[in-house]
Design goal:
Helices cover 35% and strands 24% of the residues. It has 502 residues and is an alpha/beta fold. The chain folds into three domains: 8-93 and 145-241, P-loop containing nucleotide triphosphate hydrolases (Rossmann fold); 245-332 and 417-426 and 437-502, P-loop containing nucleotide triphosphate hydrolases (Rossmann fold), CATH 3.40.50.300; 340-416, no CATH class. A six-stranded mixed beta sheet has the order 6-7-8-3-9-10, sandwiched between helices. The protein is globular.
Length: 502
């Protein structure tokens, strides 16, 4: 399968959206039998480059070659037919179709009579999932699958294409450590078969563990390409952001006040059980654990999105009406969800409309709201969080992942909450924006806001939390003050039952 020269080559590629230059000088070379990292801050042009390769958009200028032949895909179908598979950061499954139907969407095999070979499709999907080491019912609908499972389906789909080039855009963002290890084993197997892989990630430990070569982009332009063995994480950060990021976790000690949020005996059969904890004013409490431990479900239950059977939630000592997000908001709770695209934003609406979503009743006059009033209210928070956008009337879906996260945060901060629940605050965003989000969280704690942070990134948990609560299989297994929260202690509690950790 090896070919002379690169499998995929892009050079001097540019792309404009109106007056905005998304790419000025995009470059990427993928060699057969190699895994190539593509890194850069959100807005650096990585996703635009990948979309050009995938046929989602077309370049304005530049060279694009596949195995030495000039190409330019006008559709995703053309890209796939040429042997390119792309796994995006956000899953793109059809929720009403089965796992099997999603894997073979648009290319279903047919039998002798021209009918879709459903048995053959199902058999192939079972083999693919076995290869990935996962147990997912091939007949179940995609709707309701966790983000981790959705990502696994996307990976299975890409592998089934038998592609020459596989481009992975943040494929591990919602995977547990075990799932990441499994994915890396598959990626190395594809590399050893002679395929060319690109790996886009903001997690440097993954980049250095998996990749052979690394390309850095900044502000839509190519910066450098070098062997992984010849560089270091601090050097890559400097190339990415054009400056040193000295404090990735700018934690500032804040005075701890009275209990703001108290959770007592919360139970939801089959989801979580016996959840008891509290968060005080000025405190950042991290809820740690592996993907699937029930952390997000607890957060959603507190906010009233998901039901619970017994127990209660108290805000400033007063019981909160269960199952009512409206009551939670009125009591001063804000929830920044894990899946910002599906649950945090209306992607087709403007930045201003998204930021003012929660406070809209306060801005209306006789059931009407003017664009000027909306922009004025949104502008305060967009400026405070340094949202990078051409204008407040830009559509939220056009923003980079990091700026989308800032818009979700701005929406909830505009409601002036007492309690902020933030689920995976830096999932899928770059190192520079991570530092900004962490700094803002520390400032909010300093202002007396009680923060419950759910994170799968252990450095983030240890770097930002005053206390760490650990969940495993729907139960709290341990609690550590900041001084006692070590990587070993937290991971042990996340992988062992409470009685074993005692």
């Amino acid at each position: 399968m090896n070919t002379p020269g690169p499998t995929l080559l892009l050079r001097d590629v540019s792309k404009h959206f109106g007056a905005v230059a998304a790419l000025r000088d995009g470059r990427l070379t993928l060699e057969p039998g190699s895994i190539h990292a593509l890194v850069g801050e959100n807005g650096a042009g990585k996703s635009t480059l990948i979309k050009i390769v995938a046929g989602v958009i077309q370049r304005d200028a530049g060279v694009f070659e596949l195995e030495g032949r000039p190409v330019g895909f006008k559709t995703t179908a053309e890209s796939k037919a040429a042997g390119i598979a792309v796994i995006y950061q956000e899953p793109t499954l059809f929720p009403d179709l089965s796992v099997t139907e999603n894997v073979f969407m648009g290319r279903q095999p047919v039998g002798r009579l021209g009918r879709i070979d459903r048995a053959g499709m199902r058999s192939q999907v079972i083999e693919l999932l076995d290869r990935l080491g996962v147990s997912i019912d091939p007949d179940r609908p995609a709707q309701g699958l966790s983000i981790a499972d959705q990502q696994i389906i996307e990976i299975a789909k890409a592998i089934s294409l038998d592609a020459k080039a596989v481009l992975m855009d943040e494929p591990t963002a919602a995977l547990s450590g075990v799932e990441v290890d499994r994915l890396f084993a598959v990626a190395r197997g594809l590399r050893d078969e002679g395929r060319a892989l690109a790996f886009i990630s903001h997690r440097f430990d993954e980049v250095f563990a998996l990749c052979d070569t690394i390309t850095v982009m900044r502000d839509g332009s190519y910066i450098s390409t070098q062997p992984i063995a010849g560089t270091s994480a601090p050097e890559i950060v400097r190339l990415m952001v054009g400056r040193d990021v000295k404090e990735l976790f700018p934690k500032v000690e804040a005075p701890i006040g009275q209990t703001r949020l108290k959770v007592e005996g919360l139970n939801s059969p089959g989801v979580f059980a016996d959840i008891d904890f509290e968060v005080k004013a000025g405190e950042i409490v991290a809820l740690a654990g592996l993907v699937g431990a029930g952390r997000s479900e607890v957060a959603r239950a507190i906010f009233g999105v998901d039901p619970y059977t017994t127990g209660q939630v108290l805000v400033d000592g007063r019981p909160l009406t269960p199952g009512s997000p409206k009551a939670a908001i009125k009591a001063g709770i804000a929830l920044v969800p894990e899946d910002r695209r599906q649950q945090g934003l209306v992607m087709e609406e403007t930045i201003a409309t998204n930021v003012t979503d929660v406070i809209r009743p306060k801005l209306t006059r006789g059931s009407l709201i003017t664009r000027r009033r909306e922009n004025a209210a949104a502008g305060v928070w967009a400026e405070a969080l340094e949202v990078k956008c051409a204008a407040l009337d830009a559509v939220a879906g056009t923003l980079s992942g990091g700026n989308q996260q800032k818009v979700v945060l701005a929406k909830w901060l505009a409601s002036q909450p007492k309690i902020l629940i933030i689920d995976e605050p830096t999932r899928g965003i770059d190192v520079g924006t991570k530092s900004e989000v962490h700094r803002r969280m520390s400032e909010l704690a300093g202002q007396g806001i009680a923060i419950l942070m759910i994170s799968s990134e252990l450095p983030e948990v240890l770097g930002m939390a005053d206390r760490v609560l650990v969940m495993r299989e729907g139960r709290l297994t341990a609690e550590f003050p900041r001084a006692q929260a070590t990587p070993d202690a937290v991971m042990f509690a996340a992988t062992h039952a409470k009685q074993e950790a005692a």
